[in-house]
Amino acid sequence: MAFKAISSPTLQAPMLRFYSARAAPQTGLRRETLQREGPRLTKLSNGIVVASMENNHPITRIALAVKAGSRYEEYYNLGVTHSLRNCCGLTNKSATIFGTTRNLQLMGTTVTATNTRELMIYTMEVNRDKLKDSLKYFIPMICEQEFYPWEIRDFEDRIKFEVADYQQRPNVVVLETLHKVAFRTGLGNSVYTPDYMIGRHDTESLTKFFKSSFATNRMALATVGMNHESAVDIANFFRYEGTATIQEVPTKYGGGEKRIEKVSPYSHVMIAANAAGLKNPKESLSAAVLQQMLGTYPQIKRGMTRSKLFTAAAKATENPFAVSCLNFSYSDAGLFGFYVAGQAEDMSKLVKCLVDEVSAVKNGVDEKDVQIGKARVKAAMHMAMENGTDSVQELACQALHYGKVYDAAELDALIDSITPSDVNSIAKKITNGKPSMAAVGNLIDTPYLDQIR
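Structure (tokenized):
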């Protein structure tokens, strides 16, 4: 039998003190600081753009952005990008859906697919020591997609659910409607599948869109938590047969109005005009400063804001309401305006007072307001960069849209270079442009567009 007196607390405490009093052994080790690597960019011979940033984080994040958003859909395949996003992780040429899912789960790897109006973005988050094994499933998941009919039918219910969920959210419905009114086709195509197209995206249509839009010269690979040389090596494994045949059609702004009546005590209205695209960083940043000057949603949960738009709306009604300035920037176009939701009987005075408030900026902007707007843009940008997933996706978008990547200091310098005259110039261009209006809900007191111009 073992002697257990040593386990007695009476003897254990003195022994711990004696051990702690001994000098720590000299191992000769020294602390070293890992070197961080700022944003770097390389364009490979196959056309793919590689952007990377090494932050020495234990999690490596990879984002592949492809120019395969809903703006590239045509009338006969509307909603195909919504279906393509749901095909992420299905059986491919190298692994079954079960093999891909189970192996990534065992390694603790997360893969997501996001479809926007311009891009399809595949993002992977993985522990550094599992990166090599995870790439064996991540790359075929994108490059070797196979669209089997029985698997397509399996996720049809998921698409029905997502469409039904979207239709129950008036703030999203009014946003999609605004884009349709403003751009009609291209950027006007919804990121959701139309009701009449659910179940009509078969193997042939998905394969056709995949082969026509997925090519290395339409891609950008971004990594955070990896050195640039490793990112370039990974990019060389993304290979596609053939070349993209999809046409790049310039965006045309239309403008107009659309109203959707629904049984509801509330009304949701968006009014916007054509604005700067991302190809003009100076104008797009000036629009961002103007947006912050007018005011967005409260940054604190259940908080309030004393923005210009909020103050104007509060004078028009004592009932609850929500208001925010809108600013959407795409590669070659944008939308700038406002969104307001409130009681149906208050909508006429709310919309008219907000139109007057936005229109007033063309008469000139105050330098103090511009400085406040610039500070808010910087704060929003830096807080967004704290999110690892958002930062790697933003890196991929910059590489694809600009052909270069900006670090925080460069973006700060660009924002600092914005002058009141820059903001005033973009304000005049927006307010003098042709407006677009979308309204959803109880529209009994919602004015028509020609009544508020």
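Confidence is low (pLDDT under 50) at residues 1-21. The longest strand covers residues 266-275.
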